[in-house]
Amino acid sequence: MTHFPIIIIGGGPIGMACALETQKAGIEYLVIEKGCLVNSLYNYPVNMTFFSTSEKLEIGGIPFVSNNAKPTRPEALEYYRRVATSHHLNIHLYEEVKEVKQQGTRHREQGGDFLVRTNKQDYSTANVIIATGFYDIPYLLNVPGEELPKVTHYYKEPHSYAFQKVLVVGAQNSAVDAALETWRKGADVTMVIRGEEIGQRVKYWVRPDIVNRIKEGSIRVYYHSTVAAIRTNEVDIQTPEGTVTIENDRVIALTGYQPDLEFLQKAGIELSDDEVRKPVYDEETHETNVRGIFLAGVICGGMNTHRLFIENSREHAAKIIHTIINRA
Q: Torsions phi, psi of 189, nearest 5?
């Protein structure tokens, strides 16, 4: 069994930041990522522009230069790929961690003795950093027909939706981007929004665009409404005036995503008993109630996935490695 003093679960920007900080400290480590490098960013829409400026997406003090004030997805992918290459980060891609398990009693006194089991092999480590984000588990509509092939919870690019009757569910950035992009490629777009308006967190340069398209009737919208059922050629929408049935070819349900909190619980990490289900950890050290297991990035917020971003969680890496070094 291969041993590493530190194993980092998650190869996104924050997992990479932890790797850079560990490398700077001269500690051997391994990053394990179940998908490609920065897998969540890769799954963002192809034409996405970040809300943050490029300097706020930097990790390890490595400059991120973009062509515009707001970097694009391709620029971000190139930046993080170059960081991984230039700093020779030790990353295993397409390897999924199945279990983190305490071994023996050593963790009580010396900071951990863990078995990390993946779909490919087992590792031992003294410290585990979990930086797994929240993009893997979509909120389901839980309606009949959601399993049909025409339904997706992720949106990549608009071309395949051209000349289709498209229903977009949601009111935040991803839903707005999907509605505008598919409409501009010739789709007949209808939106279903649970609340009374387009989300206030929608990017400030995009919100007027969607509001005007709705106002002029180019994109139809049902407010205070939900999807009731999906069929091969139709969708039922529950509105304040009753059930409305519309013709439909494709459904893009972008109602948000949630972290894999069950994985944390299986590792022994406690969660708050309210709806946020925030993991128990020390805000200064980022160590959980399980000595030797640390959390970094958006996973720290539990179900409150809008509290932490790359720009305000990069500092987690330094706190964690400082704690591990001082303990050693």
A: -105, 130
